[in-house]
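REVIEWER CHECKLIST
Item 1: Sequence provided? yes
Item 2: Single chain? yes
Item 3: Sequence as submitted:
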Amino acid sequence: MRIGVVGTGYVGLVSGTCFAEFGIDVVCVDKDASKIERLKQGEIPIYEPGLDSLVEKQTKAGRLSFTTDLKEAVQGSDAVFIAVGTPTNPADGNADMKYVHQAAREIAAVLEGYTVIVNKSTVPVGTAKEVAQIIRETNPNADFDVCSNPEFLREGAAINDFMRPDRVVVGSESERATEVIRALYRPLYINETPMIITTPETAEIIKYASNAFLATKITFINEIANLCEQAGANVQEVARGIGLDGRIGSKFLHAGPGYGGSCFPKDTLALTQIGQKYGAPQNIVETVVWVNAERQKSMAERIIQACGGSVKGLRVGILGVSFKPNTDDVRESPSLVIIPLLQEHGAHVAAFDPAAMEEAAKHLDDVEWCENSYDVAKDADVLVIVTEWNEFRALNLDKIEQLMKHKRLVDFRNIYKVPDMEKRGFHYISIGRPEITPGSGTAHLKEVAKG
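Item 4: Structure as written out by the authors:
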């Protein structure tokens, strides 16, 4: 089989490469000539563990190629996947569909023979029908069907998610098209991966509902963490206590500074707009969007309070600027909110991230970018863990103590144990757990400003 993939961003590049690993001939197309040239040279434009070696393997095998010629990717393909961006429209919060619509028109112009057009991008309800209409208007003689096949890829674990998914969702009203999609995913049958065949509209909602529900779980446990701080409880134990209930599950119950990334912020906001459009307001999700935004702001205030109410003239060390580990993605990352707020209060910010500093520097000014965690800690008045990269879990705390000006550690990811930090004499603040104040003699909770 042969497929074309329109768009070599995160979803398109990962999906195309993994389909090639399934033994399918894949042609990835993008208008960005420099990106295509880099890919041909083996340079990967995104940070995703394992992707570089997989791209190299499949290009050498002749199953994966890159081009700027859409016709080359479309003609002769059994299916063409639309995997272009659907960013938030800042004017109204809806998903911006201009790239999807443009791709549909350009695909239609070069279609020859029966082809399944597959929406892989995250798109609002009704997009499959919109794409079909665009193609018919552009090329009335085209022989095609349009399907929805939403992606569920986690940045940092995308290859495994594609190869070993929890499920494959296909929105199709054509048995002919469905059989093509089944054939593409046939290697997953070995693992007995569930395949949900439904209508395009249902598939489109499944994608948004999935991300909104996960974002809600994150926001819920963050709210519970606030309660734990005031009531003297431990949010990690609460999360374990409720997560062992099979109806709830333990995933996405890790309290922190709020969710970020390329999916949750965009998709929750888009779902609220879809709800308004259809006269079915998504009140819970609307609240989640608001609470998460406020939480990110409140994290800066927690740091300020840890420093006695002012960070003016202080050196604040930030560990981690990506929205999660194993990615260089800083889109909607809490760090992009926290760092500017600290700077507004007069702090000098030094930061380190294993992968995302170059990207973060495009969004943040006047940050001292450091070579490692210990350069950040040197002469720091406070050290803040924002992203839970593995290397931050094993810091040489003896060295950190010696380097820091003041032994203050704000741990937004609850990486370290409260008793351990108490023994070391740190002023230690985490999320939903006791705050350690040196000289207090015991762990205790103090009221934390909510911002």
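Item 5: Key structural point noted by reviewer: The two ends are 56 Å apart (CA to CA).
Item 6: Recommendation: ____
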